[in-house]
Amino acid sequence: xxxxxxxxxxxxxxxxxxxxxxxxxxxxxxxxxxxxxxxxxxxxxxxxxxxxxxxxxxxxxxxxxxxxxxxxxxxxxxxxxxxxxxxxxxxxxxxxxxxxxxxxxxxxxxxxxxxxxxxxxxxxxxxxxxxxxxxxxxxxxxxxxxxxxxxxxxxxxxxxxxxxxxxxxxxxxxxxxxxxxxxxxxxxxxxxxxxxxxxxxxxxxxxxxxxxxxxxxxxxxxxxxxxxxxxxxxxxxxxxxxxxxxxxxxxxxxxxxxxxxxxxxxxxxxxxxxxxxxxxxxxxxxxxxxxxxxxxxxxxxxxxxxxxxxxxxxxxxxxxxxxxxxxxxxxxxxxxxxxxxxxxxxxxxxxxxxxxxxxxxxxxxxxxxxxxxxxxxxxxxxxxxxxxxxxxxxxxxxxxxxxxxxxx
Length: 408
Hints:
Shape: extended
Region (Disordered): 372-408
Protein name: Aminoglycoside phosphotransferase domain-containing protein
Organism: Kwoniella dejecticola CBS 10117
Strand content: 5-15%
Structural class: alpha+beta
InterPro entries: AGP_Transferase, Kinase-like_dom_sf
Order of helices and strands: EEHEEEHEEHHEEHHHHHHH
Strand order of the largest sheet: 1-2-4-3
C-alpha cells in the first residue's frame, strides 16, 4: 500500500491482530540518518501520546529496541496499528462537496472539530514550537522542527528550532528558503520571482504582531492536514487519523462554536495567514500569488507597502526597488538571471504608453459617438417642436373656423 511518502506492508499475527510495517520511500535520495531517526522517533512518540489520551489514532512501536534499530540501516521503518476503514473522500466540487457541503460533508467536518477539541484539551507542558521529542523515561519535550518542504539547513544541525513564537519560526524558514533559492535548490523555474515573493513574505511576517505573540500552551498539530489523513467507515464515521510525520471555513467555525469552543473558531478565522505560510519554499509564476498573501495579512500590512495589482514585470520592478538595497543574495541572483532593470522598465513604460494610447483612442471614439448622438437628439428635438407648433396652429385655425360656422 503506497502513499506519497511511505509504503505500508500488512502484517497479520497468529492471534489475528493486524499491524502495518510503515517504510519511508526514497524520492531522489534520502535525508541523513539523524533526520530520519528523529522523524520516526517523533512520530512513534506522538502516536503513543495521543493514543493514551483516547484519540482515534493508531498505536505505534519501534523496530527492535527502543532506539529503533531500523535507523542503523538504509531502510527506516516502524510498526503501526491497523486502522479499519478507508480514506474519507472529500471532493471539492459537486453535490455534497467542500465548496457546496451537504449532510455528509457537514458530518465529517463536525467529527473533525470534535477531534481537534480533544487535542486542545491535552496541551503539552512546554511553551516552544517544534516537534515533540521523548526521553527514555517518556517525558515529552519540544525539539527542532522537521518538515516536508526542504526547509532544513544543509549543514549540521540540519533542523531549525525549537522556536519561542511563530514569528521566529516562520522567519527562520523564510531565510532558509531564500538561501536555497539563491543557491539554485528551490524555485528553479522562476528563481528571481520566487526569491522576491519570499522577501515579501519576510517583511509581512516581521510586521505581524499576531505571529509575535508568546504561546502560553502548545498543542500537537498534524503537519499534512489536508483531509486525506481521515479514515472512516461506510457511515462516514471517523475510525482514525493517520500520517503523523513532522507533527507540529465557515462550517468548521460553526462546528467549533456549537461545541462551545470560540477560541478554536477564532483560530479558523485567522487561519489564512497560517495557510499561506505553510507553502514557504514553494512558488510558481502561473498566478498572482502575492494578492493572496497580502489579503491574508491585510490587518498587519506595513505602511507604504502597495505593490501593483498587475503581476509579472510591474511587480518584479516594484519588489526589486523595495528590497535590493541591503539584501545579501538579490544582486547576485539578478546578475545570474540576466535581469536588466533599464530594459525591463523600458518594456513596462512602453506597455503603459500603449495602454494610454489605446485608452485615449477609445475615449475619443466614445466622445465622438456621444457628440453625434447629442446632435441627432438636438435635431430630433427641434423637429418635434416644429411638429407641435404646426399641430397647435392647425388646431387653432380649426377652432376659429368652427366658431365662425356656429355664429352664422
